[in-house]
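User: quick one - fold this with guanosine-5'-monophosphate bound?
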Amino acid sequence: MKQLEERIRREGQILSDKVLKVDSFLNHQVDTELALEIGREFARIFADRGITKVLTIEASGIQFAMAAGIALGVPFVYAKKKKAVTLTENLYTAQVHSFTRQETYQVSISQNYLGPEERVLIVDDFLATGAALVGLVDIVKQSGARLCGVGCVIEKSFQEGRGLLEECGVEVHSLARIASMAPGRVTYVSELEAEPAAAGAAGMDGAGC
Ligand code: 5GP
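Assistant: Sure. Structure tokens for the protein plus guanosine-5'-monophosphate:
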């Protein structure tokens, strides 16, 4: 998504070769029109999948899941992060290890809001190590719902997240794929693919891990 790639270049702060700060427009202050356009883009990409529910994880996936839900005309549900391990009744839960925060936390979703009849699109702001999204894939699997794909706003393609999800048979679409970054410089996968040896992006019918 060109508009997004340009915005990252203009406003993103590259804190290291692994960490990108986009607080001014994506996940602290949110450019609402951009968020809605992101939602419309996910809706275009997954238009023919018969999505019935969008799933994300709090907090910074919420605005994009809502935008995608609006564009698709379906509800969205967000997984809650819980430290307590006592509430297990009527919940789907998964353990997620955050490499950025160096902690393991539990995510959960009420069984009332996800069931085997659903066709799910998972949406999140970043795909990095993939830990958070693998947790959500696990929850979808527990529910018996059909996982139709994962949509990420920003993918750091030099980290292992995409590979992990694809190993699970999940189809991943990211709107800005960063091949590498360093202070003052971002290279997108789209730019590398524009060069001669463009990689063919194979589509998969996501079935969950
Ligand atoms: P994971 O490593 O599980 O794929 O990423 C989990 C979460 O960490 C993402 O949803 C995102 O909220 C946060 N995250 C990972 N990498 C970055 C980054 O470079 N910048 C920001 N702002 N958040 C990140």
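One thing worth noting: The first helix runs from residue 2 to 11.
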